[in-house]
Amino acid sequence: MAGPLSTDAVVLRSMRYGEADRILHLYTPMRGRVSAIAKGVRRTRSRFGGRLEPFFTLRLGLHEGRSDLLTVTSAETIRPHARLREDPDALDLAARGCDAVGRLFDSGEPHPEVFNLLGALLALLDDSPGTASSELLVAFRMKLLLAAGLAPQLSSCATCGEAEHLAGFSPAAGGVVCASCEAGSFAVDAPTHGFLVGALGAPLAQAPRVPRRVVLVADRVVVETAAHHGHVRLRPVP
User: What residue numbers bound the domain in which 24 lies?
Assistant: First the structure.
């Protein structure tokens, strides 16, 4: 319905538009992903200041007209996440996290749990500068797959149901597979399987540190699951 709208939002992406405007991709708790234009924001005396940059959590006033593009009318900072901007690794992980949200949840369907999860990721990166880890990003994106209904089958073979002798992961089958069903899969060892299970079940803040090889295989599980079942291309961990 056309008219004013007030919502909390995380800025996923901010792009220059015209001489002084910006187009924003936002994620909101009850409107999902929306796009908005901030008019005149790049002028020196803009009332928005530097608030409309990626990773800011804001309380926005928006005007909804006839087009899909909303207009920003006011912006109040809830959390700027300024410290993560000083850490190149944290900045990169925040960008990849926001990109994953924008790709997996690109509609106006409400997912307040995704909004809260994104806020938790940004807060963790902001509260502990210098400790950003790829494990945190993989755990975050595993939880996004769960919220999107794309979580891989991890408790038993996705092909035959066997609960033991799990040896690989099949993107086509949508989960781990046993030694008898491993054709077309790639190897997943016990530490990687344990990390994936923990990433789904444990709080984001408890994502464990694991060897680099475990991170890379776990990330491959995430990326290939999103591609095969969600038709979404995610950027691999750095």
Answer: 3-79
